Q: What sequence folds into this?
């Protein structure tokens, strides 16, 4: 299947990311945009652009028939879904393929099977990939006690009808189970109207570690090592890195092979990610599979030197994977911070609005994947991501120190961002030490910093700005001058030697 | 230019002077010369005592209109603070004084431009009582309580000193 | 010797480059600046900054005593000279060291010995490093004929007093030599007042290939592979890349060992570059040694993953080289374009002035080392370099295609730049094929492009801009509005599906 | 708005229309609708026929003041071109006509605002002869040669048609 013109059914940084690779490959790009995105960066960067409706995603970016129409009108022969939106929508994949347009993603069947958590767990078990030990059926207290012994304490008692952390109870030994079960059933009954419970092995301070895999249409598979995404806030990834400070070469190989078992079981094609929970003893358990390119693919690109979007396109064209497992490099360390328009001082409330000023970090080992520019709007209709800032260094601490430095260079005006939050994280000892777990940010470590040593400088600037403003108002009609000053406003003499 | 710096619960007296091409900052009485340049609109390069700091300055919203709040992004961290014109602070204090004593006094030297009420008028909380010109600005002085005007001790065009009694507001009779 | 605060005796991109590494290492930085550079980026980025005099470099950046004074006043314990200015000034290095300040560069003796071309040639010969075969003494026609046979034709007859390409004559065989010598002597006499000539092996379409070396204070040496810098304009490097498309693993090892022989011969410490000429048969000949960090060190950083400035500081501290030769990686391919404020349409005349608009490329595999920002001035007093744009890819063509794409994203307003020139080069078949030589740009391949296919779009924008301007003038007092528009000016309806 | 596009040795007639919220470009007679947005000051996002092009626009110096030169940076390449107001071109042509014929004629309909010379006056090359209002602008029409005014065939306030004779300049007698 030729891929000569790609429609990107997405917006923001990932649309821009895909456009860049297409350009380098000499492939034309087609952007789609909602009314809110007429001036968005992906529209400016693409070779073609078509409006697909009002701002709400349900009326635009999620409208698969509109997108199909644009593909037909523009003559696109492939669609890249990015992440989110239609990327894990099997119906959309089927629709596009049925209309002769290559979907740059896995086969619809793979999306369906991995889309169901219970089905995915069964696939993993059958494939021989470890899952969190437990029984998924409900049974009597006595049978549960027997199973708990088999699984090994501590175990988690979970309400069958529960979800989102509700109706969960940690149990450390047989006695606690005996006394706890009646109470757990009582709570389950009052909360969910059903007293069924099941048990699962409790993983204390789990790490979220995921394996990037790739498959082609010829049955070849490779894994591109792991990413650790344990630094989360309310189950949202905040910082990702590759490799993981927790993973040994043996664990890496074992996790990679386990991930490929799952991929093979569903004849997976393209880029996919198998997510695991890992405990402190380096046991790991299948969590789910994401059947798309991940937000955090950049860190894998840094350490492997590969372009994952290019690989997606090559595979979609029917080509074989360009490398075999033993040709995949693991070089240095990469860290990624998700820069959001949100206010860490106000409980991370989104801060949409116009970006009045923007200077992004640069230099060796720094990569900024952005979907915005100075003057553009962070819309309230979509994910408030500004960019993904990633850095690379020969060692983990090199990458972290580089990130701290790059964050310091970041300047965003007009809206609030979480840059300062990341700066504090880069100096946070538990993070630097590499002892990560998914609950590490639950206790809010973020508070306003002590006043730093450079307050005087900031205040001096503010006073000069106020005085200049006053003088401007006093001496000139409002708004004279052509916007930017064409001569520096300079105060003070050079202290020349 | 003098300002009161408000940061967290701290305050500092700061003053900026420009003379003979030299700028100086006086911080709680300690003077330092500075070299400051607006390198980009809203971005300032500040050199003081050899130290060089790049300051990105954004104004922030502040509930008190007499106070200008700033958010500055520096390499090391963001800084949030506010600057208050000390003369404005005096005005604000004066409004508080009325609340307790019932008599509005002139917060600083100035001129009564316009009286907006006369003796016997019923006034509501927040109602403007007179306009006074001070610091080249016209300031509306308002009533902080409901009541009745019991005494007007000034007149339009009068020049007043700090502390001069202007208007007294008494309790409304039931 | 501790290095806790570094004075950077330079400006522009290299000063910013050094500051970034220092920050990551937790080292304080001191900038120096001339009157013309008060608002320069390196002043904004450094922790401290001191003015050292008027704009001309002779009165500021070259004043070693002023720089020493700043080092003393600021308490800097080391000085990084960057490239150019004082970087190869042995007197400055001696002065700083004599005053207890570490010079981040080689020993003064190494600078002196390599600073003299004739001395450097003798060092290389003694060390067993190949030089261009030839006799440097003058002799009779008969003796020259004998020597020419030994060297092998073709040979170059050069006037002893000549220079800069003048008084050179290519001779292909003994007969041509016999007839050519009298004429060469005649020309030499009339041009330089001396009829002495000497002969050297003629290298046809030579390549400029250089080896990056590193030495520490403990006698350890490594070479960090080669860079090819054959794409030159008037003997100035325009594009650099690493590795070289011409170099085989055997040639690489041979060149690396030859370079280290020279380095060892002068007890070289720190970063240095040994430059060679290479012919089409992969013979290579010592040209000279640069005893500093090179402009083009970025491409070496890309392929090795090392931070050369960090290594310079580690070595200056007295530490051993962090890696041995067999630990040095060679990963993928990197290309660098030097972006200058110059007008390719006007014979590359410098174009100083204010940068009114600046958007630099970003994304995976793109690095921009800049010393400017939007609103800053490109001064007529210094090198008109805007930035060094470098890209990396798994293969040479990947890196070139990425560079073409990145150049397309570059937007510079207010001054002219050579971006479009580089864009044409990236599509220039002789460059893409890798058959490079130092004269490849002598025949001007640069001419104005045919009008491209997007003229209509540019003209439409220009017409709307003119009309908007007219309307603004008609309806409002001049210059009302606060500079930037706070709402988009939008014309035309969305062609919504 | 009509313009003559000058690019290299080519010229094109281009016209831009805005009506009912729709913008159209007419290029040598062929019409196309376009969607154009100033995304940053001086940067334009242009969508025409589905194609999307980001245009960075800078004005360039041009020796001829009647022509506005542009330099546009696009993803594919820079574009250099100039736009000439065809009415200004007519004016420019008129000045050329005077040089050959000796008689200044009205380059387009308009009104003579002011006569700056009278019969018998000696004039130098480039000296303004009269001011004519056309296209809502006042245009100074100048002499292209040294000479003497032999005839003035119009008057201040006169409305003139294209081609009306205005002033004749004859050779200066030695």
A:
């Amino acid at each position: 299947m030729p891929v000569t013109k790609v429609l990107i059914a997405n917006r923001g940084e990932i649309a821009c990311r895909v456009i860049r690779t297409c350009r380098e490959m000499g492939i034309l790009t087609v952007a789609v945009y909602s009314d809110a995105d007429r001036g968005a960066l992906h529209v400016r960067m693409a070779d073609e652009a078509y409006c697909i409706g009002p701002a709400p995603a349900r009326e635009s970016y999620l409208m698969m028939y509109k997108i199909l129409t644009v593909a037909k009108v523009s003559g696109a022969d492939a669609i890249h879904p990015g992440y989110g939106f239609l990327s894990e929508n099997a119906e959309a994949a089927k629709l596009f393929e049925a209309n002769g347009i290559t979907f740059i993603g896995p086969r619809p069947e793979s999306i369906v099977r991995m889309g169901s958590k219970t089905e995915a767990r069964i696939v993993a078990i059958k494939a021989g990939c470890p899952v969190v030990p437990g029984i998924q059926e409900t049974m009597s207290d006595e049978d549960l006690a027997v199973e708990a012994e088999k699984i090994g304490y501590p175990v988690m008692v979970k309400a069958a009808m529960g979800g989102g952390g509700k109706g969960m109870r940690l149990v450390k030994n047989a006695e606690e189970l005996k006394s706890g079960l009646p109470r757990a059933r009582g709570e389950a009954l009052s909360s969910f109207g059903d007293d069924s419970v099941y048990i699962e092995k409790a993983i204390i301070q789990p790490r979220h570690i995921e394996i990037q895999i790739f498959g082609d249409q010829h049955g070849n598979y490779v894994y591109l090592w792991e990413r650790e995404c344990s630094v989360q806030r309310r189950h949202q990834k905040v910082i990702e890195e590759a490799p993981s400070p927790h993973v040994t070469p043996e664990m890496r190989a074992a996790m990679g092979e386990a991930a490929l078992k799952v991929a093979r079981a569903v004849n997976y094609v393209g880029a996919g990610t198998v997510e695991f929970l890992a405990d402190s003893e380096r046991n790991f358990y299948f969590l789910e599979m994401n059947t798309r390119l991940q937000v955090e693919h950049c860190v894998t690109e840094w350490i492997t030197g590969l372009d994952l979007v290019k690989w997606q396109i090559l595979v979609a064209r029917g080509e074989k994977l360009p490398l075999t497992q033993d040709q995949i490099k693991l070089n240095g360390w990469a860290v990624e911070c998700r820069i959001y328009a949100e206010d860490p001082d106000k409980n991370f409330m989104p801060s949409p609005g116009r970006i009045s000023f923007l200077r992004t970090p640069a230099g060796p080992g720094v990569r900024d994947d952005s979907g915005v520019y100075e003057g553009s709007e962070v819309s309230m209709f979509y994910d408030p991501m500004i960019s993904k800032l990633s850095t690379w260094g020969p060692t983990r601490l090199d990458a972290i120190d580089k990130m701290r430095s790059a964050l310091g260079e970041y300047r965003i005006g007009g809206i609030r961002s979480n840059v300062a939050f990341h700066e504090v994280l880069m100096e946070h000892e538990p993070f630097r030490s590499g002892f990560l777990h998914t609950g590490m940010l639950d206790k809010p470590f973020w508070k306003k910093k002590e006043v730093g040593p450079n307050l005087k400088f900031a205040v001096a600037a503010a006073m000069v700005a106020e005085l200049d403003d006053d003088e401007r108002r006093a001496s000139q009609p409002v708004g004279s001058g052509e916007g930017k000053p064409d001569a520096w406003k300079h105060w003070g003499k050079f202290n020349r030697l | 230019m003098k300002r009161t710096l408000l940061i967290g619960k701290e305050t500092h007296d700061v003053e900026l002077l420009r003379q003979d091409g030299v700028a100086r900052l006086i911080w709680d009485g300690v003077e330092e010369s500075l070299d400051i340049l607006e390198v980009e609109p809203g971005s300032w390069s500040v050199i003081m005592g050899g130290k060089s700091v790049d300051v990105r300055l954004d104004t922030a919203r502040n509930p008190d209109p007499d106070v200008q709040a700033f958010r500055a992004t520096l390499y090391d961290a963001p800084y949030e603070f506010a600057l208050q014109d000390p003369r404005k602070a005096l005005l604000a204090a004066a409004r508080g004084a009325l609340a307790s004593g019932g008599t509005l006094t002139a917060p600083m030297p100035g001129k009564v431009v316009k009286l907006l009420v006369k003796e016997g008028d019923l006034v509501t909380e927040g109602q403007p009582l007179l306009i006074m010109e001070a610091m080249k600005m016209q300031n509306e002085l308002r009533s902080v309580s409901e009541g009745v005007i019991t005494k007007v001790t000034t007149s339009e065009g009068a020049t007043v000193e700090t502390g001069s009694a202007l208007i007294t507001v008494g309790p409304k009779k039931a």
